[in-house]
Amino acid sequence: RGEGAIYPFHIRARAALLCGFDAVIELPYPWSCSGARDFAFGAVSLAKGIGAEKIVFGSESGDTELLKRAARNLSSDSFNALLSERVLSNKGERYAEIREKLYLEMYGEALPVSANDTLGIEYIISIGDSGITPVAYKRIKNSSASDIREDIYKKDSPFEKDNMPTEVKEIFSDAKPFNKEKFSLAVISYLRLADIDSKNLYGMPDGLLQRIVSAAKSENDVDALIEKV
Questions:
Q1: Residue 99 CB: number of other CB atoms within 10 A?
Q2: What is the largest CA-CA distance in the chain?
Q3: How many angstroms separate the CA atoms of 38 and 128, rounded?
Q4: Fewer CB within a 10 Å sphere, N or C end of the chain?
């Protein structure tokens, strides 16, 4: 989401351990800040490295077979060859829209495009034939991570609610959340002062860096900067 974790990693790791986890392994930068494909590659590489037998991930559909089928279809040579042709001949249309239309046309079902289904497909592609079993776990509509973050910033502590494990209430009640104001100051200052070359930024589209740097000259916080860009 483009901002720091709500609490430091050692606090979140401790909470997980107190609630029954055996270990917490951090996905390092740059994988943790990459798009779905590179994020999944980094995560699956870690899972392979520790000898994992399964990867269980949250998913809007909760349909492992659907996502496995999508991963297989998206990886096919025939699909990607035709997709390249369509992209070149439809330059005014968004890549994602072209891909979804072609997928429906070729396979007779809609491509799962929700955020966590998309990431799940990339996990499965990265897993390949390694022997790890992917398991999609259906996400149930409840308080979202964004809702909980807003509660924390408004001092409406979610840590007193019934679904908060008693083992960790004290940890979070005493912890200081991520400081958005200091983050904004650091980011805006960097963008105004640093000499950044877009050629050295992986995945940066042409022209976007210039828009970001330009917006930083007139905006004083990251949210406003993003809106302007």
A1: 18
A2: 58
A3: 15
A4: N
